[in-house]
Design goal:
It is a single chain. With about 800 residues, the chain is α+β, with helices and mostly antiparallel strands. Among the domains are: about 100 residues, no CATH class; about 160 residues, Jelly Rolls (Sandwich), CATH 2.60.120; about 220 residues, no CATH class. The protein is built from 30 helices and 16 strands. The strands form four sheets. Strands 1, 2, 3, 5, 8, 10 and 11 form a seven-stranded antiparallel beta sheet that branches. Strand 2 and strand 3 form a beta hairpin. The radius of gyration is 30 Å and the shape is flat. InterPro entries: Cyt_c_Planctomycete-type, DUF1585, DUF1587, DUF1588, DUF1592, DUF1595.
């Protein structure tokens, strides 16, 4: 398990887990609340019954339906305790409040307005008081720890290494849609052991680089070298002809593999493809392919993405950076399934001559003039790694006085890892681990490494150190940096925290803008969109190749780039949230133009520029976030679509409408995979049950509007293979009575409701950034965030800035 766990021993590990876990108790945990914190009025109140004004309203208007053995919606108000400290009771009364507030209940036609107002005001006040008291006592966020992505970035920043670490830790469980939410996080002995293993591996890499130096591998591979083995039986490499290496689309696995490239060490490599050009390109002037790494053999068939290749008629160099495992080779192949496949003929002795006829017969290919591979260290060079580990201490210093140097270095390292200054008491145990090893005649390096490993697995490193109430400046710096960079604070944030300036709203706002403009914000875009839009699930399904014959790896990777580029543009230019629903531009490349079949709808596109912003015609169907292929794919199952799945997604992630889980025992609606019966017809039977219809009135409309897109994001008018099934009916009526006959008219209904979308985004982002879902008493703060962004047309950047300067973010 590593040096640290051997030195700490099991009892110390148990204490570490207990300390972290104890922070995470939630509302209603045993002994979690303090009775002394309840005011005298509440202490005298009979918690078994609601106050008299509320009871009178319930008795006159609600108990007829919510009191018998089978109450409506499963809610019985008889005997429902009014102890709002209990989570279940609080949630039940919150639901009662919302149903009455929204006019869904009670159904009395003779209900007087003042009766409802008195009831709502009284219940709202008590719910607000109870929730606010609980937050004041224990905070709204329960002991959040770093996600595995945040931990990887933190270790990289602390040490300057670049090892992939996240896959060595268990996946984080998402709750309320986000892995950052504390209530869904676990910390067990097993997980701590994994952290120890990861810390030991990271430190081994850092100390090796500092003490032994970096590898400086460089490989320059000519076209002739890349085609070594041509003429051998079962050759699957590229053709070498006229100073070029040429890959063709062939119906065989591992075609395009280059045996002469075998990576000597695990590491990051910069790969340059020289003078890449397209042979017989498609109408758009481009041939698309994939560059991948792997063993390249049937015994180990997995290949790892390096990048997608966009070859144009004009030769140009293409550059990639990727982590490649020791012993892996590269494979370059045209990977556009719209291309005609060239004949294999891999065993012919005249392979090269035969392949020349591929070009003459119009087959498309990708040519280049060789590959340059360089070992790189993207996070830091050796000098910086050495500085991170040893500061200004030299070998003669630790040889002459190892105890003093070790104490000083551990204090320095712990302060960085804990993201705040440390006291001598806080750091003493970590120092002692190294001092004990020194006393046993272990080397200074081993002693220092053991102390550092303990620091990297400390609860002060793994968790957010926060106390109920307003956050101190260092806690604000940590929240801010992990929200916008998924990484630890930089020197600027730590300096401002030390000066006590981060609670100044203007300074905080300027730091938010600085961080959003920093290249590290790309890490935020990737992390946030992965969770908010479920992009991390894009590999969960494989589209049926019989129905979707042209969906390929290039299309899928382009879809991810499309959505992330679109969100980045919205933030960069502070564009309004209405763009989630519809927009007059899109971020596309040539492959997506053909996949979506919208080449005639766009303006401003040029070949060879990858994902680029293009203008859409007014009648285009590709406007907005919700019409993008990545969103449409993660809300489908690879074979069929469901208005329910897409409807829930749009309601919760885009419109901010919370959809309750289905009642127990209600079966799922399974679409007809043949397309003979429309999903709409099946849903009509399902909605005949009034208890189901109550929710489906809200869920289904956006799902119906998106039924015109198939599981891979292509427009359709009919279901089934080849569009031979039932006709798609994308019309419907929204919960508030708005009617639409298809996607475009549905979009117009919500483009004109930007405040609704802004509120939904603010709640989603605050949940991600704070590690806790929106609480009842947070709603006034969310109202202020939305109103403060109105002048910018509810710009995304303005909403983010307002959220990060709000009370829910600046308080535990």
């Amino acid at each position: 398990m590593g040096l640290v766990i051997r030195r700490l021993g099991f009892p110390c590990v148990l204490l570490t887990v207990t300390v972290i876990a104890s922070v995470g108790r939630t509302r209603g945990d045993e002994n979690g609340g303090s009775k002394e914190s309840i005011d005298s009025e509440s202490a005298e109140q009979d918690l078994a019954r609601p106050p008299l004004p509320i009871s009178d309203f319930l008795g006159q208007h609600c108990l007829d339906c919510h009191s018998d053995d089978e109450p409506e919606a499963g809610l019985s108000l008889i005997g429902l305790p009014f102890d709002l400290r209990e989570p279940k009771a609080f949630e039940s009364w919150r639901r009662v409040y919302q149903r009455v507030r929204d006019g869904e209940m009670p159904p009395d036609s003779d209900l007087k307005a003042n009766e409802t107002d008195d009831f709502l005001n009284g219940l709202n006040r008590r719910l607000m008081e109870s929730d606010s008291r609980d937050i004041a006592d224990r905070g709204r966020v329960r002991g959040r720890r770093l996600t595995r992505t945040e931990y990887e970035h933190t270790v990289h920043s602390l040490l300057g290494i670049d090892l992939p670490l996240r896959d060595q830790l268990p996946e984080d469980t998402a709750m309320h849609g986000f892995e950052t939410v504390a209530d869904g996080q676990q910390l067990s002995h097993h997980l701590l052991a994994r952290y120890l293993d990861v810390a030991d591996r990271a430190l081994a890499e850092a100390f090796d680089r500092a003490l032994k130096g970096d590898y400086t591998d460089v490989g320059d591979f000519s076209p002739r070298l890349l085609s070594q083995g041509i003429g051998r039986r079962n050759y699957r490499g590229p053709e070498s002809r006229d100073g070029e290496s040429i890959s063709w689309p062939i119906f065989r696995p591992f075609f395009g593999r280059m045996r002469s490239i075998r990576v000597p060490h695990d590491g990051w490599y910069r790969i340059t493809l020289r003078d890449v050009r397209a042979i017989n390109p498609a109408k758009g002037g481009t041939v698309w392919g994939t560059l991948r790494s792997g063993v390249g053999a049937s015994a180990q068939p997995i290949l790892y993405k390096v990048g997608i290749v966009e070859a144009t008629e004009t030769p140009r160099d293409l550059h990639y950076e990727a982590w490649i495992r020791k012993g892996h080779l590269l494979e370059l192949t045209p990977n556009d399934l719209t291309l005609r496949k060239a004949p294999t003929q891999s065993g012919r002795p005249d392979t090269a001559a035969y392949r020349k006829r591929n070009e003459e017969q119009g087959f498309s290919g990708i040519a280049h003039r060789g590959i340059l591979m360089e070992r790189i260290y993207p996070n830091a060079d050796r000098e910086q790694v050495t500085q991170n580990l040893f500061g200004d201490a030299k070998q003669e210093h630790w040889e002459s006085d190892p105890t003093v140097v070790l104490k000083r270095l551990v204090t320095r390292f712990a302060s960085k890892a804990f993201r705040r200054p440390v006291t001598s008491d806080e750091v003493a145990d970590y120092q002692q681990i190294g001092l004990d090893l020194l006393s046993e005649n272990e080397s200074f390096i081993e002693a220092l490494r053991a102390s550092y490993s303990a620091v990297l697995c400390s609860p002060r490193t793994l968790t957010f150190v926060e106390s109920p109430g307003p956050l101190d400046d260092y806690a604000i710096a940590s929240r801010l940096s992990y929200a916008l960079w998924t990484d630890m604070p930089d020197e600027t944030l730590m300096r401002l925290a030390g000066e006590g300036k981060l609670r100044n709203t203007e300074i905080l706002a300027s730091q938010i803008d600085r961080m959003l403009d920093d290249p590290r914000s790309k890490q935020f875009i990737n992390s946030f969109t992965d969770q908010w839009l479920n992009l991390n699930q894009i590999d969960f399904t494989t589209p049926d190749s019989r129905q979707f014959r042209t969906f390929d790896p290039v299309v899928q990777e382009s879809m991810l780039q499309e959505t992330r580029t679109f969100v980045s543009k919205l933030i960069e230019e502070d564009l309004g949230v209405a763009h989630f629903v519809d927009s007059d531009f899109a971020c596309l490349n040539e492959r997506l133009l053909r996949h979506y079949r919208v080449a005639d709808d766009v303006e401003g596109w040029k070949p060879g520029r990858g994902i680029q912003t293009v203008s859409l015609s007014p009648a285009s169907r590709r406007g907005g976030l919700i019409t993008q292929g990545a969103i449409l794919k993660v809300t489908a199952d690879g074979t069929t679509t469901s208005p329910v799945v897409r409807g829930v997604f749009v309601n919760e992630r885009i419109l901010g409408v919370r959809v309750p889980p289905p009642p127990p025992g209600v079966p799922a609606v399974e679409p007809d995979v043949r397309g003979a019966t429309s999903i709409r017809d099946q849903l009509a039977k399902h909605r005949a049950d009034e208890s189901c219809n109550a929710c489906h009135r809200t869920i289904d409309p956006p799902g119906f509007a998106l039924e015109s897109f198939d599981p891979v994001g292509v427009w359709r008018d009919r279901y089934g293979i080849g569009g031979r099934g039932a006709a798609v009916d994308p019309s419907g009526t929204t919960a508030d009575g708005g009617t639409f006959d298809g996607l475009l008219s549905w979009q117009q209904l919500y483009v004109n409701q930007p405040e609704l979308i802004a509120r939904g985004f603010a709640e989603q982002f605050l949940t991600y950034a704070t590690g806790a879902p929106i609480r009842y008493s947070d709603e006034p703060a969310v109202d202020r965030i939305v109103s403060d962004s109105k002048a910018s047309q509810y710009g995304i950047r303005t909403l983010i800035r307002a959220a990060l300067t709000s009370d829910p973010f600046l308080k535990k």
